[in-house]
Design goal:
By secondary structure, the protein is mainly alpha-helical. Helices cover 64% and strands 0% of the residues.
């Protein structure tokens, strides 16, 4: 076997390999460092971010995915601004895996970087870290010219789950970009305040079907049957089956009895996923009047539909018994 593919498990051996004039050998050593998971490897990896070979720097960015903490975050912050797009993309991927809140320190300054890619990547990484001092730059980033940055800013705000941020999230549901609106509606799921609920329900009428879809799903997490049923039932006639599916799922979770007849219509839809969801929702509601419609799909071509129909009929029988 070539020396390039030898296995190295000792840091001292790997240090020698990292100094090899052969870029291939350096890359193999970096892969070994990534697999080690030893914090002592981070400085060695960081030193290679100045390597003249972009493939070496790319391997470093990938290897750092296995590390956490401020030192690893500092290295990834450097890689995020690498001149090579692949290196920067790999760094963004790895940075999003950081979990130690202290990792936010090297990333926060990047929220104001001249590159929209860097700004968005830094915000994406900050989201999982849930640092309260990320709220202010995230709120400011809602005014960024780039939609991708605004989407990630909404993510940071949503993960912090602070009621003080609800007004900003509500405003973001009117953003000119559908992806931003969709993210904002989803982010409002943590708030059970009346204004948040009203905003989510208003999003059910958004011009973009994916915003309506996420609004239907979010209502199932935040609302009660009484204050969401009419809105959700209306969505069962949406032109996009994906929206109908999420509305059906939420109505089932909320056990909206008055929705059973409208949900049963979904059992005849050409999309098996909607038929499956309709059967399950009818089981959650357990209205005896739904039994004939469920029995009609016991021989459905999709096994998941048949399974859910059997389960739903069992739920109805159980409720009737007692």
């Amino acid at each position: 076997m070539s020396a390039v593919f030898e296995s190295y498990t000792d840091l001292e051996d790997l240090k020698e390999q990292l100094a090899s004039p052969d870029a291939g050998e350096r890359r193999v050593a970096i892969m070994e460092l990534g697999d080690l998971g030893d914090p002592a490897a981070v400085p060695l990896l960081t030193a290679l971010l100045g390597d003249e070979d972009a493939e070496v720097r790319l391997q470093v960015a990938r290897a750092l995915e296995n590390y956490d903490g401020p030192e690893a975050a500092e290295a990834l912050a450097t890689a995020l601004v690498d001149a090579d797009a692949e290196v920067a993309a790999a760094a963004a991927w790895s940075a999003a895996e950081l979990k130690d809140p202290a990792s936010a320190d090297p990333l926060l300054p990047l929220v104001s970087h001249e590159s929209a890619f860097v700004r968005a990547s830094a915000l994406k990484a900050l989201k999982e870290l849930r640092r309260k001092d990320a709220l202010k730059p995230a709120l400011e980033a809602l005014q960024d010219a780039e939609p991708s940055v605004r989407v990630q800013a909404v993510g940071v705000i949503g993960f912090l789950k602070l009621e003080e941020s609800v007004p900003a999230l509500r405003a973001a549901t009117h953003d000119g970009d559908a992806d931003v609106r969709r993210a904002a509606v989803s982010a409002l799921a943590f708030s059970h305040t009346l204004p948040a609920g009203e905003t989510i329900r208003a999003a059910l009428k958004d011009s973009d079907w994916m915003v309506r879809e996420i609004a239907a799903e979010t209502l199932g997490k935040t609302a009660t049957g009484s204050n969401a049923s009419v809105d959700l039932i209306t969505l069962l006639s949406d032109e996009f089956w994906q929206v109908r599916l999420k509305a059906t799922r939420s109505l089932g979770k909320l056990k909206v009895f008055t929705a059973a007849t409208a949900i049963a219509a979904g059992l005849a839809h050409e999309q098996a996923n909607l038929r499956k969801e309709s059967a399950f929702a009818l089981g959650e509601i357990a209205d005896p009047a739904s039994a004939p419609a469920l029995e009609a799909v016991l021989e459905d071509s999709d096994p998941e539909v048949r399974k859910n129909a059997r389960w739903a009929l069992a739920q109805i029988a159980q409720k009737a018994a007692g």
